[in-house]
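Q: I have 210 residues here and want to know how they pack in 3D. Can you give me a structure?
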Amino acid sequence: MLVGGFFLFMAFGPLLFSEVWYQFKQFKKQTYKIDPNGVNENVSFFGQLLGSQPIYITPVNKDFSIVIEKLDINAPIVKDVGVLDPESYKNALTEGVAHSSFSNYPSLNPGNVYLFAHASLNFWELGKYATVFNLIRKLEPNDLIHIFFENKMYVYKVVNTEVYQGWDTRPLTREVIQPVLTLQTCDPPGTILNRLVVTAVLKEEVPLAE
């Protein structure tokens, strides 16, 4: 029983911590604000724990990364990961969120930027960034997602959240008539039964200082 309890804790621990930390910030009404050029000094972990002032997020890079202020997500993105290659996917999650090789790059042109990361019960096989999308189910219409790509910031606005069966590839292969961002993770968390898919549309493109 002890061994079983340990494995359950290791499998679901990151999800539980993310949920508790999110609810704690909601209780404090603490907000996160994007700081593309790192002008504001960030606050230490204990500063976040004790204070209620906004926390400024500087993207990990401007080459290809994702920031979601509402969820305190700030992670690099690995380009062109094969969705049909589990080994490639697992390796990618040690370096960042995976970008599908079948999808587009961020731009003002119509296209689907497809990003995916999911948690497995085989916690010992997870990459460092496998649990980044644990809380994307919290996203609601009009929430903002920032994608940094080639020294530009692309601001997307969430339009809906849907659940698809695990084998359904429509979110990846669908035709779009505008710039779209798709985030995918597993649903329920820690399983591979279904796919939780968040769709967002491009709101603006912002060039950044060198």
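Q: Anything worth noting?
A: Residues 59-207 form a domain with the Sortase; Chain: A; fold (CATH 2.40.260.10). The first helix runs from residue 2 to 28.
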